[in-house]
């Protein structure tokens, strides 16, 4: 009896001990006033208490280094930790931020002279100078970093490819004229260049702080190297990230003292956390929207915003001989009812695609003529071609939503064209590696989120035969190529957009390797007192101009 | 416990701990090999889907992913021996071993509290049900047990979250860092294990109560309390402890869904995130830790038997 008792007592004691004092005092225990995550809205805290704004992210940021960051979670956070020369405004146009006014541009559109604002400092207190941009860009392009995000945004600068290949350390196209003047030469007139400079990969960095941390940017030096209106405080993987207002910020201060960024991966948890008062704003995944719309209180806080992306079906002419016949591609296009896909399969929460360019994008032409939905004509075209496209493997990234779309496509082709395609869902990394290879994937369903608001980012990068974005489909068309090349060479203006639009029409007429299906929008839950949110078409939600009444 | 028994126990422990080494070696090899056999290129995950082929090759070099399998495995073993497991691919400022450890303490605390809750409540319910066999209390507690065991964890998690978090707003729906954040996840995790233990305790109790020695005890005039608590329950606990061992391992490591729903920085979340990001060092560290826990829990269970059931000897 007594032995038995002592065992129980021991067990209890051990468990309590474990529960009580396990773990380490570390970033996982929030101690600042805002850490209290009980009920009640923090953004409307009592007078005197710090104003806490809670806006969640739906995954752990995969990095805290602006030179590496490309996923949605880290961009959302780093966008506010780091300042850049320009920033996308509410009209989705680049506006000056660290640039003191818009830069002077040479008549040929290739030399940009930036004046840099005086008095702007890194979080270590040192003033930001022109040399800090040059250093950061060379770092972002260098092969020493895991990810070449820098490559997407800075590759127009003369000498960028040499730095990326490791052949040069110095970026030839960037000249530091003086502490507050930066001259940047790019390889052609590119009206979207200023928009590209708004991405966090282009943020200036203090060399001394980065190099003393083995060239890395991480929790150890993030509080010193950053430059934006909020300061990094802590990050607990799987739980939350916390930032605080930068009281030494040179520009417009943010409207809150603390920005808590809970990491909430589950859609239902996001909505529950919002309902419980633990969030002031949240981006909500699509499956939760019907429930939100049906809820009288939640529906009042719900809104949508436009985002620059296109989901498409790609037909690989490299390995499927039949796809080289334009009639076959047209038949496939005419057999798929995009309206029904958007309205029924996607619950009306996506916008059916007309062309390759998403609505809101410069050059977007609502009058462009896509292939009509016409099953009868589709069957005629396929019959006329004499090709057999049964058994084509439709590759997609295995996930609930993607599966739904892939099944819809399969079903449409069967019903309207009488052909049987095989679904080939796979893990993301494998899917991407396959379609990039160019000779492994017969047809695939994927998407493209624009990197900068310009038709070039879709019609050249994604469709043009010379572009190496990796969306290999093998389609070539001399007229399309000529139009896009001419548009690319112009410094801007209406003519340029018109040329892209003509090219886009050819692409649609020919079903050039890919068939645009739909564009997704962003879904927000937001307290009525939150105003001034900026949701640019491309890029990230900005809390910088937020007001909390 | 006699001196001889103590010696036996000690040599038993030593033998079991020695077996641990080859077990973990095999596990480590399997884990390492599986990481390499599963589809998906860590370089693409690291560099992003728009990265150029040259860049992908550079990254493979940077992380030694281009080296022969056995060379990579050797490096991994070195890191494992040091307990660091190398730097995380994703968060290079963190050692995979440290990340795993952080997550483990969180999961251990939740798991231990849930196990405690489940044991105390479950045994109590089971005993009550056995005592009131065939009566209303028995039916009620067994109805609760069956209903609970047949409901998946996430249903409880979401229901509790809605009722206590979103609707009544008594408790935070999500979050971590304060004692109040334990309440929902521990209850959710504990409730199912509790139901399971209750059912088991009930049948084990009924079984024990029908044994000859209990009848003898009654005949000797031993009081009801002593028979129940001292004779029957103690014997009934052997199967309960076995189950508790397995459950405890599950509670610590199988809590991924609960951790995700409640945004808890536990071992499950860290592991799954690492798997999706192909963060091999972290995946390897967490998997090895899990294997160690399972072996350790089993060992503890074996030791506990001796305290509960004197017939069991270590030989």
Written account of the structure:
- The complex is a heterodimer of chains A (549) and B (315).
- Chain A has helices at 2-21, 72-81, 130-141, 149-154, 160-165, 193-196, 207-211, 222-225, 267-275, 289-294, 326-334, 338-345, 375-385, 400-417, 428-437, 456-463, 478-489, 494-510; strands at residues 52-54, 86-88, 94-96, 104-105, 111-115, 174-178, 181-185, 230-236, 240-245, 258-262, 281-283, 302-306, 309-315, 350-352, 393-397, 422-426, 443-449, 514-526, 530-531, 547-548.
- Chain A is α+β, with helices and mostly antiparallel strands and 549 residues long.
- In chain A, the strands form 5 sheets. In chain A, strands 11, 12, 13, 14, 15, 16, 17 and 18 form an 8-stranded mixed sheet that branches.
- In chain B, helix 5 runs antiparallel to helix 10 and helix 8 packs across helix 10 (224-253).
- Chain B has helices at residues 3-37, 42-47, 53-62, 69-82, 96-131, 136-149, 153-167, 183-209, 212-220, 224-253, 256-262, 267-276, 280-308.
- The radius of gyration of chain B is 24 Å and the shape is flat.
- Chain B is 77% helix and 0% strand.
- Classes of the chains: A alpha+beta (549), B mainly alpha (315).
- Chains A and B meet through helix 1, helix 4, helix 9 and helix 15 of A and helix 2, helix 3, helix 5, helix 7 and helix 11 of B.
Fraction of residues in H or I helices of chain A? 25-40%
Strand content of chain A: 15-25%
Write the H/E string of chain B, N to C: HHHHHHHHHHHHH
Inertia-based shape of chain A: globular
- How many DSSP helices of chain A? 18
The percentage helix of chain B is over 70%
Structural Rg of chain A: 26 Å
Assign the structural class of chain B, choosing from mainly alpha, mainly beta, alpha/beta, alpha+beta, or little secondary structure: mainly alpha
Q: Strand portion of chain B, in percent?
A: under 5%
Helix/strand/pairing class of chain A, anyone?
A: alpha+beta
Query: What about the largest sheet of chain B?
Result: none
Give the largest chain-chain interface (CB within 8 Å). Answer: A-B, 72 and 72 residues
Round the Cα radius of gyration of chain B to an integer and report it. Answer: 24 Å
Give me the number of helical elements of chain B.
13
* Main sheet record of chain A: 8 strands, mixed
What is the residue-mean pLDDT of chain B, rounded to a whole number? 85
Shape descriptor of chain B reads: flat
Unreliable stretches covering 5 or more consecutive residues of chain A: 1-42
Provide the low-confidence segments of chain B as ranges.
none
